[in-house]
Prior knowledge:
Helix 6 crosses helix 7 and helix 9 packs antiparallel against helix 10 (216-229). The chain has 277 residues and is α/β, with parallel strands linked by helices. The relative contact order is 0.13. It starts with a strand and ends with a strand. The protein has two domains: 2-169, Rossmann fold; 182-275, Pantoate--beta-alanine Ligase, Chain: A,domain 2 (2-Layer Sandwich). The protein is built from ten helices and nine strands. The mean pLDDT is 96. The strands form two sheets. It has a six-stranded parallel beta sheet, sandwiched between helices. The chain has helices at residues 7-14, 31-40, 71-79, 91-94, 113-116, 120-135, 147-159, 189-194, 197-210, 216-229, and strands at residues 2-4, 20-25, 46-51, 85-87, 139-143, 165-169, 233-241, 254-262, 267-275.
Amino acid sequence: MELIHTVAELRKYLRGVPNNVFVPTMGNLHEGHLRLVEEAAPRGACTVVSIFVNRMQFGPNEDFDRYPRTLADDCKKLESIDCDVVFAPDEKELYPEAQTYSVVPGDIEGILEGAVRPGHFRGVATVVLKLFNMVQPKAAVFGKKDYQQCLVLKNMVQQLALPVEIILAETVRAEDGLALSSRNQYLTDEQRAEAPRLYRVLNELKHALLHGTHAYATLEAEAMTELARHGWKPDYVTVRRRADLQPPSAAEKELVVLAAAKLGSPRLLDNVEVELA
């Protein structure tokens, strides 16, 4: 496995192995990240993982400064699976000058996560486009836990005619259902015991949809009340159509239920897809 820190070195290495598949991460890797790498490995001759904590996607009061940087441990984990290259640039390497150009994702930027975290998806799309230009992958793998982010990036690739296939991998969960996330380590023991409720609430809402309930607003309000009753501060629990995350009509068949809520200081995201008959 090669550990590379500069764009020039990365391009030199990849010039001889153009058939690569890419997994962008912010490091502090867990089993969910490793599953993405395992999903990528059989799809190309070279698997590239980037590790970079991207300041552009953090708000002014978010956890950029304290986000865990664990490069040495991350590399050990990646050495144990089929990873060929770790690209770990510093901030000056990825942003050698002030980033005055950015990718504006359009209407999807202002809803759900975009409404709660203004500018977040602009930062995500901009850094991913830069990384795509550096790595030149034939495909890139992302996890469905960040559902809105996946749609933002799929749309970016389509509208900018990028020659990159976006592969979406299923959310990896702990045995009790909690979606794996680097931010789970912020949870206290008591909060960790409570955290799986988010997934249970989403599945209860999914169950109601599968049994013919179309009172979306009522279901959403009940779910948020249930979370609040147990100490959560929900930003949203919402039923949306998968295609564009807009509110669905009663006739819509392909849905997704998305939620974001704080449990103490940590903020957790999750979602479940729903296919109606």
